[in-house]
Inverse folding.
């Protein structure tokens, strides 16, 4: 059954028993529709249930995924892709297929090797693998967007950013490990709905974190729980592991989109004053926060085919939330009404007000490197394509008696939870 383990520092680690996570699609089941109608029941159905990993580890049961993750037929192709893991055109969807749905575990094992972290921190490879399997399994595959493939995509982007000369020349092994771990776990156990939804349904996590960075706090605490259960860092001095846990929290909490202006203003000030001292641990940590924020919302900066897939996936997740809200007679959240909020209008607004300001500042920090210029070029081209699609929708709407026409104001609506 459900178990909650509270560490000495008040860390909440929630685990589930043998019950599967309740798929939101169950709410559409006709046998349930007549029985479920109250906010209280929504809250119960949305409770986060997860496998009790610790009990499996204590019993010595090896996770389902073998250490040898790849089928022989795909091994060569996956290895070839990993040899180009630092390229911006890396196709995470293809890599996930080649690794049989184990993109996050396979990618992290490879990157820990590439960056020399296993040797530097004397990590046990089997323990590392078990921890990464725990993280990967704690993502919900039924989420169209916030799943383990998104985590792998963010991790690959983070790897690219960590190699930017302006940053790479100053990074310590601790910085690199923190950056990769935070990227991999930044959305762990995401329920597929945003913070306002949890607040208005009075979810227990909203109460626990007092309606502040609810999901981000949960991602962080869950990560710490898995780190402790796996004992991945148990051989390190206690003060070192405590510092790692706190810095992981600082990084993951920075991905809260509600804090976007706070970080942009601070970054602009540093760049304008030219007072960033990356020899300073505090300044390096701040730029790791910025790098993770960039990695988390870099989808519009990818090749069109990849970017378009991510856009469709996140909007599908929004629309599912809107359907839930409509079903239970709640106010439909911004961007979640499939009848009014179109994918092009959502993406144009997101690119204009969230992505462009951040990536223009990132390019200013890196010094207009080939990667930064490449990302900005993709961003501009992708935005132009969405504008073209929006224009076509408008034309189609006008020819159909203006039914379902998108208003310009919808472009300015910003989501309150991490949006690609």
């Amino acid at each position: 059954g459900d178990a909650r383990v509270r560490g000495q520092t008040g860390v909440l680690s929630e685990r589930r028993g043998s019950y599967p996570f309740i798929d939101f699609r169950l709410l559409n089941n006709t046998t349930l529709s007549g029985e479920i109608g109250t906010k209280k029941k929504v809250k119960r159905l949305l409770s986060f249930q997860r496998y009790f990993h610790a009990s499996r580890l204590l019993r010595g049961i090896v996770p389902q995924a073998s250490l040898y993750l790849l089928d022989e037929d795909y091994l060569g192709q996956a290895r070839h892709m990993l040899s180009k893991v630092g390229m911006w055109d890396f196709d995470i969807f293809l890599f996930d297929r080649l690794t049989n749905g184990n993109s996050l575990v396979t990618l992290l094992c490879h990157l820990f090797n590439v960056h020399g972290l296993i040797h530097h921190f004397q990590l046990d490879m089997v323990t590392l693998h078990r921890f990464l399997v725990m993280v990967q399994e704690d993502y919900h595959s039924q989420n169209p967007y916030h799943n383990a493939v998104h985590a792998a995509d963010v991790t690959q982007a983070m790897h690219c950013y960590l190699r930017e000369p302006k940053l790479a020349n100053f990074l310590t092994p601790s910085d690199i490990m923190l950056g990769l771990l935070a990227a991999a776990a930044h959305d762990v156990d995401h329920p597929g709905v945003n913070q306002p939804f949890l607040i208005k349904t009075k979810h227990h996590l909203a109460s626990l974190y007092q309606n502040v960075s609810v999901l981000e706090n949960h991602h962080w605490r869950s990560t710490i729980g898995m780190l402790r259960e796996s004992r991945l860092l148990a051989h390190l001095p206690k003060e070192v592991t405590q510092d790692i846990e706190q810095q992981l929290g600082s990084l993951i909490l920075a991905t809260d989109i509600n804090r976007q202006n706070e970080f942009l203003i601070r970054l602009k000030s540093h760049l304008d004053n030219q007072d960033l001292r990356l020899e300073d641990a505090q300044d390096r940590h701040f730029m790791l926060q910025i790098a993770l924020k960039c990695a988390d919302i870099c989808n519009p900066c990818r090749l069109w085919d990849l970017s378009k897939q991510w856009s469709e996936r996140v909007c599908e997740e929004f629309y599912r939330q809107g359907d839930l809200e409509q079903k239970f007679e709640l106010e439909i959240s911004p961007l979640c009404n499939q009848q009014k909020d179109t994918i092009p209008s959502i993406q144009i607004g997101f690119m204009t007000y969230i992505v462009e300001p951040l990536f223009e500042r990132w390019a200013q920090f890196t010094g207009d490197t080939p990667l930064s210029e490449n990302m900005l070029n993709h961003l501009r081209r992708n935005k132009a394509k969405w504008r073209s699609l929006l224009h076509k929708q408008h034309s189609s709407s006008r020819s159909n008696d203006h039914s379902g026409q998108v208003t310009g104001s919808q472009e300015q609506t910003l989501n309150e939870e991490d949006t690609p």
Remarks:
- The chain has 20 helices and two strands.
- The longest strand covers residues 3-6.
- The two ends are 35 Å apart (CA to CA).
